[in-house]
Design brief:
Distance between the termini: 43 Å
Order of helices and strands: HHHEEEHEHEHEHEHEHEHEHH
Radius of gyration: 17 Å
Strand content: 15-25%
CATH class: Alpha Beta
Structural class: alpha/beta
Helix content: 40-55%
Strand order of the largest sheet: 1-4-5-6-7-8-9-10
Number of helices: 12
Number of domains: 1
CATH architecture: Alpha-Beta Barrel
CATH superfamily: Aldolase class I
Length: about 260
């Protein structure tokens, strides 16, 4: 079984367990307790290349990541370093994350937060809103077009922005036809085998219609890479492992972007 299929299977089991522990109706009753809105899409629309700085504990490809700093310490450093938004990886079985990490990040930072997970069920959309996420990630490779469309509209109904992630031409064509999203993420990592090719962003960028906010994800470690992505029209980048693994994430982020304005030109 491919890595992605394993993750989806474990996600299905985890969602079923959480639904049993806290039924959907009980979860929905807590929606009114959500905090103030932090528009995610607007944060990526500022001049220059915006950075979505990610907190994750481990990955199937890299194993344990970082020195053991708390989520609060990491996201505070990201904010100091000039991040435009946060990504909090909440998948537990393979990445060691949790919704508690997202809640802690929201308490520790004023930045908008993307819940990064393998979202395959309406229940996860609702729990994202309840936990304080401002946006969710929907992965085209993990969903058929009908599922993606339903979850996309579910999220917007709850005032969540949606970053729709693609990896190849077929996925891009499909999502443009089904939901025509404003935010498109190009994952340079193939979720089937976790190989990374940064050229993937350049290959797909020409096929994305004007007016979309484009986010390049995975494999970005050098300032020169970011400068080139900004030059060709990418609006934002999502970076995690290289920042968490650094001695000082704030300084590492500033060095990648060239300062708080994230202008790497």
């Amino acid at each position: 079984m491919a890595i992605l299929e394993q993750i989806i299977a474990s996600t299905q089991d985890a969602v079923a367990q959480r639904r049993e522990q806290r039924p959907l109706a009980e979860l929905e009753s807590q929606l009114h307790q959500r905090g103030a809105d932090r528009p995610f899409a607007e944060a990526l629309a500022r001049p220059g290349l915006s950075v979505i700085a990610e907190f994750k504990r481990r990955s199937p490809s890299a194993g344990e990541i970082g020195s053991g700093a708390t989520v609060e310490e990491i996201v505070a450093a990201y904010e100091t370093g000039g991040a435009a938004a946060l990504s909090i990886l909440t998948e537990e079985a393979n990445f060691g994350g949790s919704l508690e990490d997202l809640i802690a990040a929201r308490d520790a930072s004023k930045l908008p937060i993307l819940r990064k997970d393998f979202i395959i069920d309406h229940y996860q959309v609702v729990e994202s809103a309840v936990a304080g996420a401002d946006a969710i990630l929907l992965i085209a490779a993990a969903l058929d077009p009908n599922e993606l469309e339903l979850l996309y509209h579910d999220a917007h109904a709850l005032d969540l922005d949606v970053l729709v992630e693609v990896h190849d031409e077929e996925e891009l064509e499909s999502v443009l036809e089904s939901v025509d999203p404003d935010l498109i993420g190009i994952n340079n990592r193939d979720l089937r085998d976790f190989t990374v090719h940064v050229e993937r962003t350049h290959q797909l960028l020409a096929d994305i219609p004007a007016g979309k906010t484009v986010v390049s994800e995975s494999g970005l470690r050098e300032r020169e890479q970011l400068a080139e992505l900004e030059r060709v029209g990418v609006d934002a980048v999502l970076i995690g492992e290289s920042l968490i693994a650094s001695d000082d994430p704030a300084i590492a982020l500033e060095q990648l972007t060239g300062g708080h304005d994230a202008d790497v030109s």
